[in-house]
């Protein structure tokens, strides 16, 4: 199983499940083991159709029930589904609040107006206002719906990709019922069915094997073991996962045939239970959801504080209770940044897309950031860290170790192929080998071709094909006349081949097998193509080479051959393989070849990145500890110079028990030891060792490890490789499309980047809240005409601020984000007080001043000097007052001064756009200067132009005065806010300069967000 | 920073005229008493006293004593003082309003059920209405309503234009037109919608949105 879990503690629910599980798992075995002979007698006819139907009705179809995902499926009633999907990233209360803003604010204002007005036209104009309110309501609903659709489609797209993973063709199974062989849908297989499988089939359910012929299964999706395992009717182990007579659901039969009785179906299978367990892990909120919740708390806190203080103030100022309550609601809802929901969703979507391009498919938008906050990655070895194919890595001949090329693209070094010994070795490896390339793959590069045969033979086949040309031709030249296949008693494989006529000898005997067994049978050894007697020195050289290769975690095979003497074995000699009638000792040793599943090229680099990023990488594998350790060292999971307890013991020549475990940073833990570890010991191991390898682990143990990791930290996410089962993929938040560990690192990088960029984006969006709210406050406090209206606020939040805020998601990282420690969820928040203080307290205030300045400029230039404005509100908003005098003695009708007021709103809006230019530029960086960061973000530059163009459009487009009550500005009014824009830029550059000069100083502590 | 920019901005402003006057290109019309619905019973003085007091206080600035120091300007031409340093103000005596001046009839006709309504045009700096601006009122109904205008024909004399602003002409008074509604017996006890417009000049009186630009609408209901 190429499962990569990156996990931190949570959840306790499945602990019980894990323990229960073991007892249940025993049951199939016991049942199967009751009496094999009885069974054999009983079953040849299989179940009756009636029985099968009965069982099917009782147990349900033989399929894994998809785990209930934390977002509802498409089959739910659309509205509910829509609502839940609408806000995957944002707390439910948030859009509710933003929806509230409008009824509250407008209802309030309309109410006030109606109180004030006694004019004949009130009726008509309030109708007009109702229309406008309706219009706003529609706009807002549209925003919420569009945002919702956005995330909905993103998720729908991911689920579509998910669908495509599933096999379109339903799985078939061959069952025997009422004595007849039937090809049925695998879903219809029931417990007790007699099933036949052959090489290439997928096992349709958990089977108790009752007869087998050379049957081998690939359990890698279950145990991670890449080596096919033999299945036979014998019960060889108490553990159902280890015993040979059980074949597991959803694993593959590689070769041979077998018959078995179905013992478990569907979710009750081992795979099903593991899938359920895996999905049990995935609960709780993702880190980003928590962050957003925290953010909403802060925003609400600020809003409520402002609202309540102004409520008290307005009461003190003599407003009526009703008005004060209206103000309270108005202020609270005015604090909601409407655009933020959309911005966050879009930012996350963009990152999800970017990650998908880099082979990281994110199913749940919230999970985008999860990888970024990862502190521990538990990775399976096979397929993720390694290429999941055996490859010849080393050879030993002519008393020398040669390195073979193991890279994925054959770019590695080659070795000397001219030696006669190599030719002989290649011949033995090619001939004493039953693996063949599957037909019709001539166009494919050799490495990519499919091979029928076991992993090590395929490795040899490919190696020889690569270095010596066609193995097929060689096999045709030396026809096979006899063969003894590998078995566990003699531990070798042997074949006899006919030599061509040019040769002196008629027959060539070739043999491969366990090196020590091969050596025992040899009396001579080939050196530089010449046969030499085996002496002690050479034997020792062999031993050293064998140990060295074994120490690398490689599987070593020995090769030998013998040209059978013509006198004893004349042409036509009948070789009998059952009762061996030819010599099988005193052979000539040729060499050793060793194989390994080599690490993927990008993995060591990725592991190195993880390490510098402060992420602990734990390898979990079903492989042998030595192999596991070798691969771990190869990819850097155990880094150079770090020793395990055993290494220290070996170096100091003392028993393992005397070594202080604290001295060893690395450790390799065997699955059988893991069983005996208590929870505390487990925690101890995880805490005190930086480099951990778990070898020989079963799937259950993998979960225990994950659980251990969880206890240390807070959150959990599940990432799956593409080769994982459908069910586990459904449970996962994230899928690595290329099964490559390096993709996780990409995910981490992107996740960290989006976390930083979301901060910037939020800082940017929040800043404009202050110039949006202060006009209302001053309207209440000093009774000036309203400087900024609701429509213009919406134009900012949903119009001009959007693209620049989103463009910050494209911002490049400021420094090497893979060189810092993972985010501490308790300390490093998405939105903290410092961000609020910068956005609201500092930049926002300057922006508000800029806006007010243009407001005063316009009113003053039209005749209303600031001195007359204070306290003018009641008269200003009085419809019946149509001769309001300005500072110059001119008299204004209501409509005339309202046009000026709306021009002010437009100018205030334009000013916010202008100061937001500076804001987006300063938000690009949190520490660096813009001059260091550069202006390479094209989307951001586009955003600057876009918001300016939009502002100009809103101001100058004919008809806007009617539609949005926005009026054309005189060109000079655009420049009012320029000094403030410049001030913001300079202010923040200076702040960042001090921050960089004085690391850890007051400025950093108080303002670095 | 804010203070600085505000100061700079205020320095650029002219003391006499605002920088932009395009938003008040056309003047609005308003009536006195400043009510949109004038309702009273002619035989109950308490009901119209507020209107009368309002008119009286409004007309104070047009008193002989106040207007005596102002210039008697030639009629029918603009009173141009562009180059003049100390700007004078044209005289508008309240006696011009005759029956509606409140001098002869201190009740402005309210007690006899034929109320006077004063119509004035908003002050706008530099406004020079072309043609012969005069106020015309009409009831919004089939039958025409008899009315009397003071000064005659409801004329707004050109000599009161242009206005040079509060600082240059602190004593400026704008011309007023009084409309005496000559209600007939059948007009009592019913609501009359009356619209007054400025006609005979280039001043706008038909803006879609601004119902007070060059016109004003009000309701009158007098009980017997």
From TrEMBL, chain A:
<comment type="function">
    <text>This is the catalytic component of the active enzyme, which catalyzes the hydrolysis of ATP coupled with the exchange of sodium and potassium ions across the plasma membrane. This action creates the electrochemical gradient of sodium and potassium ions, providing the energy for active transport of various nutrients.</text>
</comment>
<dbReference type="InterPro" id="IPR006068">
    <property type="entry name" value="ATPase_P-typ_cation-transptr_C"/>
</dbReference>
<comment type="subunit">
    <text>The sodium/potassium-transporting ATPase is composed of a catalytic alpha subunit, an auxiliary non-catalytic beta subunit and an additional regulatory subunit.</text>
</comment>
<keyword id="KW-1003">Cell membrane</keyword>
<keyword id="KW-0739">Sodium transport</keyword>
<keyword id="KW-0479">Metal-binding</keyword>
<keyword id="KW-0915">Sodium</keyword>
<keyword id="KW-0812">Transmembrane</keyword>
<feature type="transmembrane region" description="Helical">
    <location>
        <begin position="939"/>
        <end position="956"/>
    </location>
</feature>
<feature type="transmembrane region" description="Helical">
    <location>
        <begin position="134"/>
        <end position="153"/>
    </location>
</feature>
<dbReference type="GO" id="GO:1990573">
    <property type="term" value="P:potassium ion import across plasma membrane"/>
</dbReference>
<dbReference type="InterPro" id="IPR050510">
    <property type="entry name" value="Cation_transp_ATPase_P-type"/>
</dbReference>
<feature type="transmembrane region" description="Helical">
    <location>
        <begin position="899"/>
        <end position="918"/>
    </location>
</feature>
<dbReference type="Pfam" id="PF00122">
    <property type="entry name" value="E1-E2_ATPase"/>
</dbReference>
<dbReference type="GO" id="GO:0016887">
    <property type="term" value="F:ATP hydrolysis activity"/>
</dbReference>
<dbReference type="InterPro" id="IPR059000">
    <property type="entry name" value="ATPase_P-type_domA"/>
</dbReference>
<feature type="transmembrane region" description="Helical">
    <location>
        <begin position="971"/>
        <end position="987"/>
    </location>
</feature>
<feature type="compositionally biased region" description="Basic and acidic residues">
    <location>
        <begin position="20"/>
        <end position="41"/>
    </location>
</feature>
<dbReference type="InterPro" id="IPR023298">
    <property type="entry name" value="ATPase_P-typ_TM_dom_sf"/>
</dbReference>
<dbReference type="GO" id="GO:0005886">
    <property type="term" value="C:plasma membrane"/>
</dbReference>
<keyword id="KW-1133">Transmembrane helix</keyword>
<keyword id="KW-0547">Nucleotide-binding</keyword>
UniProtKB/TrEMBL annotation, chain B:
<keyword id="KW-1015">Disulfide bond</keyword>
<dbReference type="GO" id="GO:0036376">
    <property type="term" value="P:sodium ion export across plasma membrane"/>
</dbReference>
<keyword id="KW-0735">Signal-anchor</keyword>
<keyword id="KW-1133">Transmembrane helix</keyword>
<comment type="function">
    <text>This is the non-catalytic component of the active enzyme, which catalyzes the hydrolysis of ATP coupled with the exchange of Na(+) and K(+) ions across the plasma membrane.</text>
</comment>
<keyword id="KW-0812">Transmembrane</keyword>
<dbReference type="Pfam" id="PF00287">
    <property type="entry name" value="Na_K-ATPase"/>
</dbReference>
<dbReference type="InterPro" id="IPR000402">
    <property type="entry name" value="Na/K_ATPase_sub_beta"/>
</dbReference>
<keyword id="KW-0633">Potassium transport</keyword>
<dbReference type="GO" id="GO:0006883">
    <property type="term" value="P:intracellular sodium ion homeostasis"/>
</dbReference>
<dbReference type="GO" id="GO:0005890">
    <property type="term" value="C:sodium:potassium-exchanging ATPase complex"/>
</dbReference>
<keyword id="KW-0325">Glycoprotein</keyword>
<dbReference type="GO" id="GO:1990573">
    <property type="term" value="P:potassium ion import across plasma membrane"/>
</dbReference>
<keyword id="KW-0630">Potassium</keyword>
<dbReference type="GO" id="GO:0001671">
    <property type="term" value="F:ATPase activator activity"/>
</dbReference>
<comment type="similarity">
    <text>Belongs to the X(+)/potassium ATPases subunit beta family.</text>
</comment>
<dbReference type="GO" id="GO:0030007">
    <property type="term" value="P:intracellular potassium ion homeostasis"/>
</dbReference>
<protein>
    <recommendedName>
        <fullName>Sodium/potassium-transporting ATPase subunit beta</fullName>
    </recommendedName>
</protein>
<keyword id="KW-0406">Ion transport</keyword>
<keyword id="KW-1003">Cell membrane</keyword>
<keyword id="KW-0813">Transport</keyword>
<keyword id="KW-0740">Sodium/potassium transport</keyword>
């Amino acid at each position: 199983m190429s499962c990569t879990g990156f996990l931190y503690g949570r959840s306790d629910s499945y602990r019980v499940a894990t323990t229960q599980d073991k007892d249940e798992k025993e049951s199939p075995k016991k049942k199967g083991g009751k009496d094999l002979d009885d069974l054999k007698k009983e079953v040849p006819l299989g179940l009756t159709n009636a029985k099968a139907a009965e069982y099917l009705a009782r147990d349900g179809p033989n399929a894994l029930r998809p785990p209930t995902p934390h977002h509802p499926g498409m089959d739910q009633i659309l509205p509910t589904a829509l609502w839940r999907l609408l806000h995957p990233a944002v707390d439910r209360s948030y859009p509710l609040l933003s929806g509230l803003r409008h009824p509250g604010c407008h209802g309030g204002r309309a109410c006030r107006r109606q109180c004030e007005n006694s004019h004949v036209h009130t009726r008509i104009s309030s109708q007009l206002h109702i229309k406008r309110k309706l219009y706003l309501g529609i706009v807002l609903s549209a925003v919420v719906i569009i945002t919702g659709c956005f995330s909905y489609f993103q998720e729908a797209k991911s689920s579509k990709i998910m669908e495509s993973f599933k096999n379109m063709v339903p799985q078939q199974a061959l069952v025997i019922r009422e004595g007849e062989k039937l090809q049925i849908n695998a879903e219809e297989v029931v417990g007790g069915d007699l099933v036949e499988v052959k090489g290439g089939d997928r096992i349709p359910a958990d089977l108790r094997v009752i007869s087998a012929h050379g049957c081998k299964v690939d359990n890698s999706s279950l145990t991670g073991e890449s080596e096919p395992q033999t299945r036979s009717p014998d019960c060889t182990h108490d553990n159902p996962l280890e015993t040979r007579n059980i074949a597991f659901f959803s694993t593959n039969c590689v070769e041979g045939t077998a018959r078995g009785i179905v013992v478990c179906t569907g979710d009750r299978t081992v795979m099903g239970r593991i899938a359920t367990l895996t999905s049990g892990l995935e609960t709780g909120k993702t880190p980003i959801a928590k962050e957003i919740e925290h953010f909403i708390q802060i925003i609400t806190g600020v809003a409520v504080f402002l609202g309540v203080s102004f409520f008290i103030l307005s009461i003190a100022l003599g407003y009526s209770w009703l008005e004060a309550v209206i103000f309270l609601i108005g202020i609270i809802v005015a604090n909601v940044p409407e655009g933020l929901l959309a911005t966050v969703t879009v930012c996350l979507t963009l990152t999800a897309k970017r990650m998908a391009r880099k082979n990281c498919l994110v199913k749940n938008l919230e999970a985008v950031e999860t990888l970024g906050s990862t502190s521990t990655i538990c990775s399976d070895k096979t397929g993720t860290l390694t290429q999941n194919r055996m490859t010849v890595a080393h050879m030993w001949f002519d008393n020398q170790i040669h390195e073979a090329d193991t890279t994925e693209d054959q770019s590695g070094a080659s070795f000397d192929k001219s030696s006669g010994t190599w030719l002989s070795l290649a011949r033995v490896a090619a001939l004493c080998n039953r693996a063949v390339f599957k037909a019709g793959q001539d166009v494919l590069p050799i490495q990519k071709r499919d091979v029928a045969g076991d992993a090590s033979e395929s490795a040899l086949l490919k190696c020889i094909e690569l270095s010596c040309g066609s193995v097929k031709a060689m096999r045709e030249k030396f026809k096979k006349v006899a063969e003894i296949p590998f078995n566990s008693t003699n531990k070798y494989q042997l074949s006899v081949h006919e030599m061509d006529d040019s040769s002196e000898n008629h027959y060539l005997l070739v043999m491969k097998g366990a090196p020590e067994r091969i050596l025992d049978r040899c009396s001579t050894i080939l050196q530089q193509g010449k046969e030499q007697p085996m002496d002690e020195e050479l034997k020792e050289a062999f031993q050293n080479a064998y140990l060295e290769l074994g120490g690398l975690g490689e599987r070593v095979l020995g090769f030998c051959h013998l040209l059978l003497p013509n006198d004893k074995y004349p042409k036509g000699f009948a070789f009998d393989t059952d009762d061996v009638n030819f010599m099988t000792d005193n052979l000539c040793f040729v060499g050793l070849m060793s194989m390994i599943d080599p690490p993927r090229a990008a993995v060591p680099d990725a592991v190195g990145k993880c390490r510098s990023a402060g992420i602990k990488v734990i390898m979990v594998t079903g492989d042998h500890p030595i192999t596991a350790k070798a691969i771990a060292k190869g990819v850097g999971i155990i880094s150079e110079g770090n020793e395990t307890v055993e290494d220290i013991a070996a170096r100091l020549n003392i028993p393992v028990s005397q070594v202080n475990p604290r001295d060893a940073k690395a450790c390799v833990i065997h699955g059988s030891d893991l069983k005996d570890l208590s929870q505390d010991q487990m925690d101890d191991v995880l805490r005190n060792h930086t480099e951990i390898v778990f070898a020989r682990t079963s799937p259950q143990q993998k979960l225990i490890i994950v659980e251990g990791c969880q206890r240390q930290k807070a959150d959990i996410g599940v990432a799956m490789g593409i080769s994982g089962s459908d069910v586990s993929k459904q449970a996962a938040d994230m899928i690595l499309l290329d099964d490559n560990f390096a993709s996780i690192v990409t995910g981490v990088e992107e996740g960290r980047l989006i976390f930083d960029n979301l901060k910037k984006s939020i800082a940017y969006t929040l800043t404009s809240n202050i110039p949006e709210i202060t006009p209302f406050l001053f309207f209440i406090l000093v009774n000036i005409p309203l400087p900024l209206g609701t429509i213009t606020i919406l134009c900012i939040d949903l119009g001009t601020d959007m693209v620049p805020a989103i463009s910050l998601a494209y911002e490049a990282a400021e420094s090497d984000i893979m060189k810092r420690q993972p985010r501490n969820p308790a300390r490093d928040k998405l939105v903290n007080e410092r961000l609020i203080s910068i956005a609201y307290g500092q930049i926002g205030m300057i922006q508000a001043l800029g806006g007010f300045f243009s407001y005063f400029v316009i009113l003053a230039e039209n005749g209303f000097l600031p001195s007359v404005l204070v306290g003018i509100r009641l008269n200003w908003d009085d419809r019946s007052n149509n001769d309001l005098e300005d500072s110059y003695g001119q008299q204004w009708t209501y409509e005339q001064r309202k046009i000026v007021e709306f021009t002010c709103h437009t100018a205030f809006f334009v000013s916010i756009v202008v100061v937001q230019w500076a804001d987006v530029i300063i938000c690009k960086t949190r520490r660096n200067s813009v001059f260091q960061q550069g202006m390479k973000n094209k989307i951001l530059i586009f955003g600057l132009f876009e918001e300016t163009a939009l502002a100009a459009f809103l101001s100058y487009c004919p008809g806007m005065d009617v539609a949005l009550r926005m009026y054309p500005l005189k060109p000079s009014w655009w420049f009012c806010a320029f000094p403030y824009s410049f001030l913001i830029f300079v202010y923040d550059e200076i702040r960042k300069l001090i921050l960089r000069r004085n690391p850890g100083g007051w400025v950093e502590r108080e303002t670095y967000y | 920073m804010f203070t600085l920019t505000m100061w700079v901005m205020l320095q650029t402003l002219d003391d006499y005229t605002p920088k932009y006057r395009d938003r008040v290109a056309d003047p609005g019309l308003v009536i006195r008493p400043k009510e949109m619905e004038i309702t009273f019973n002619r035989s109950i003085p308490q009901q119209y006293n507020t209107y009368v007091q309002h008119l009286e206080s409004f007309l104070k600035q047009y008193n002989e004593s106040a207007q005596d120091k102002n210039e008697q300007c030639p009629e029918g031409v603009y009173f141009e003082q562009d180059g003049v340093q100390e700007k004078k103000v044209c005289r508008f005596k309240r006696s011009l309003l005759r029956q509606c001046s409140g001098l002869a009839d201190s009740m402005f006709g309210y007690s006899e059920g034929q109320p006077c309504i004063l119509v004035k045009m908003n002050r706008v700096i530099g406004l020079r209405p072309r043609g012969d601006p005069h106020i015309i009122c009409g009831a919004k109904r089939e039958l025409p309503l008899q009315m009397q205008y003071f000064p005659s024909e409801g004329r707004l004399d050109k000599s009161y234009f242009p206005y040079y602003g509060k600082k240059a002409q602190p004593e400026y008074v704008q011309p007023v037109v009084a409309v005496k509604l000559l209600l007939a017996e059948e007009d009592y006890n019913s609501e009359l919608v009356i619209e007054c417009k400025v006609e005979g000049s280039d001043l706008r009186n038909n803006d879609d949105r601004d119902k007070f630009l060059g016109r004003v609408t009000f309701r009158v209901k007098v009980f017997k």
